[in-house]
């Protein structure tokens, strides 16, 4: 059964007798998918076919070949798995709101179930489609373990205010997820199989940022990565996670970002490994930090701008706006890792080459951009541009929250005042030197081939 608190009506149009459509977007998987499960329950009850529809946007917040390749290869696996369950997978091109509305009309659909997603572009797609549709649009939060709209009705100050609310509700939501079954009601139409390779070439996504071969996409890649993490790296996570040389993080963010892996599945699997320091440290990131990011993007419309800064941070950044900068780099110098800081350049090169940057260095990396640009506004724009262009897990609420935390004090508090930063938390090169073998890290990424 789906907990009703996970379900949110986007309009009050009627639910009619036609096919049920699951409009897949954020949760790009067949297994552990609350939205798909809810849509099938509706279709079984009405004894009608069930379709999975994915609207492929030709451009999506600057996504490049690296992102579309990862996503489309994953969707190939979705299509294969859905077909085996008598659930046609339909990929639509064009502007998503228009293409879904046209499809609903043609199909005489009975109802549309879509994913929860706090990003502005998705609110636009889903809310506009729901406004114009003549059938019911139902949103299901398949991304958060505790549904984002339930955890808190407002923007939380930080992890410390959200954590108790999450912890109170977790026991009611952290359980095994029911799986969908082979669908007994067949669709009259024919779904054309899509060719990921052809589509990847056809799309105009910037091919100067190439795919990262080493990261195997889709639900298959995700379950292998999860098993590997639990087997080999969960033990020691609390110690190793802040050392860029220790391979101590889970590496799960690309699959979580594209919804090829359910965070609830990860938390449920890890929580069964016992009540250790490593499990607690990992769940703090996976549940509290990650679900805090969705709360931030849902309740702060300017989540990707200086508007997100809490008052104390806005004041301190204003006060230090005109402090002299020792270095000021252009976006191209940042992009090419051509600053005077070998550590910053190495972190940038790690991201350029692997599509990922170690979590500890992401903080240092973005804070330095504040120090080396003309203004906090330019710093936020530059950090978002680079992170979204090169990180496979970019264009994610976690990224907007991470950059807002680093540059304008979101979810953080005031620290000792200093030039440019004011009382925004500072991170220094020497501080990093004390944390890990900085020279070895720089050596590795200086030699790596772009
Ligand atoms: P692990 O440490 O193994 O954590 C497991 C999961 O927990 C992550 O996959 C992620 O879903 C979640 N998580 C971990 N740390 C955080 C955090 N600080 N905030 C929110 N969720 C977290 N994360 C992204 O998914 N996409 C981004 O674009 C992104 N950009 C960031 C930019 C900056 C400046 C900062 C400071 C952080 C950013 N993060 C981003 C958050 C975090 O750094 C990454 O989620 C993490 O490094 C991903 O690696 P992992 O999966 O191995 O993490
Ligand atoms: N979601 C879609 O429904 N259609 C798309 O064409 C699409 C492209 C895309 C490209 C890069 C990327 O990082 C995400 C993309 N997404 C797309 C959205 C993604 O599935 C996530 O829903 C959000 O980015 C996270 O909130």
Structure, explained:
The structure is a single chain. The protein has helices at 34-46, 65-84, 96-107, 120-132, 148-151, 159-173, 196-202, 218-232, 237-240, 253-257, 263-271, 277-299, 311-319, 331-335, 342-354, 359-371, 376-390, 397-408, 429-435, 438-447; strands at residues 7-9, 20-24, 50-56, 89-93, 111-115, 136-140. Strands 1-6-5-2-3-4 form a 6-stranded mixed sheet, with helices on both faces. The protein has 3 domains: 4-143, HUPs (Rossmann fold, 3-Layer(aba) Sandwich); 144-178 and 218-299, Serine Threonine Protein Phosphatase 5, Tetratricopeptide repeat (Alpha Horseshoe); 306-447, DNA Cyclobutane Dipyrimidine Photolyase, subunit A, domain 3 (Orthogonal Bundle), CATH 1.10.579.10. With 450 residues, it is of the alpha/beta class. The model has no long low-confidence stretch (mean pLDDT 97). Bound molecules: flavin-adenine dinucleotide (FAD) and ligand FO1. The site of flavin-adenine dinucleotide has 28 residues, from helix 10, helix 12, helix 16 and helix 18.
């Amino acid at each position: 059964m789906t907990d009703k608190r996970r379900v949110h009506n986007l309009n009050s149009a009627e639910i009619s007798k036609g096919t049920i459509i699951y409009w897949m977007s954020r949760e790009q998987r067949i297994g552990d998918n609350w939205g798909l499960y809810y849509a099938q329950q509706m279709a079984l009850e009405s004894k009608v076919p069930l379709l999975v529809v994915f609207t492929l946007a030709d451009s999506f917040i600057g996504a490049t070949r690296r992102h579309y390749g990862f996503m489309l290869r994953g969707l190939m696996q979705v299509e294969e798995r859905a077909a085996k369950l008598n659930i046609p997978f339909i990929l639509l091109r064009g502007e998503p709101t228009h293409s879904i509305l046209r499809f609903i009309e043609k199909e005489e659909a009975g109802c549309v179930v879509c994913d929860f997603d706090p990003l502005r572009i998705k609110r636009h797609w889903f809310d506009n489609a729901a406004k114009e549709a003549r059938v019911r649009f139902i949103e299901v939060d398949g991304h958060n373990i505790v549904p984002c709209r339930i955890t808190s009705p407002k923007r939380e100050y930080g992890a410390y205010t959200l954590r108790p609310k999450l912890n109170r509700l977790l026991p009611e939501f952290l359980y095994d997820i029911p799986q969908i079954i082979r669908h007994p009601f067949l669709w009259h139409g024919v779904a054309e199989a899509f060719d990921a390779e052809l589509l990847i070439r056809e799309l105009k996504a910037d091919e100067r940022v190439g795919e990262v071969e080493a990261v195997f996409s889709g639900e298959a890649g995700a379950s292998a990565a999860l098993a590997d993490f639990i087997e080999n790296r969960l033990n020691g996570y609390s110690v190793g996670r802040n050392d860029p040389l220790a391979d101590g993080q889970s590496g799960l963010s690309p699959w979580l970002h594209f919804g090829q892996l359910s965070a609830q599945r990860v938390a449920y699997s890890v929580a069964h490994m016992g009540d250790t320091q490593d499990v607690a440290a990992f769940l703090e990131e996976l549940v509290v930090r990650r679900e805090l990011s969705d709360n931030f993007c849902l309740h702060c419309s300017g989540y990707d701008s200086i508007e997100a800064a809490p008052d104390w941070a806005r004041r301190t950044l204003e006060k230090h706006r005109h402090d002299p900068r020792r270095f000021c780099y252009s976006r191209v110098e940042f992009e090419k890792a051509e600053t005077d800081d070998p550590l910053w350049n190495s972190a940038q090169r790690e991201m350029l080459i692997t599509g990922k940057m170690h979590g500890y260095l992401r903080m240092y990396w973005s804070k330095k951009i504040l120090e080396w640009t003309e203004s906090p506004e330019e710093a936020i724009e530059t950090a978002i541009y680079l992170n979204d262009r090169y990180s496979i897990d970019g264009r994610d609420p976690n990224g907007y929250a991470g950059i807002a935390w680093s540059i304008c004090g979101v979810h953080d508090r005031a620290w000792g005042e200093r030039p440019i930063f004011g009382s925004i938390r500072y991170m220094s090169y020497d501080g990093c030197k004390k944390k890990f073998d900085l020279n070895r890290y720089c050596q590795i990424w200086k030699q790596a081939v772009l």
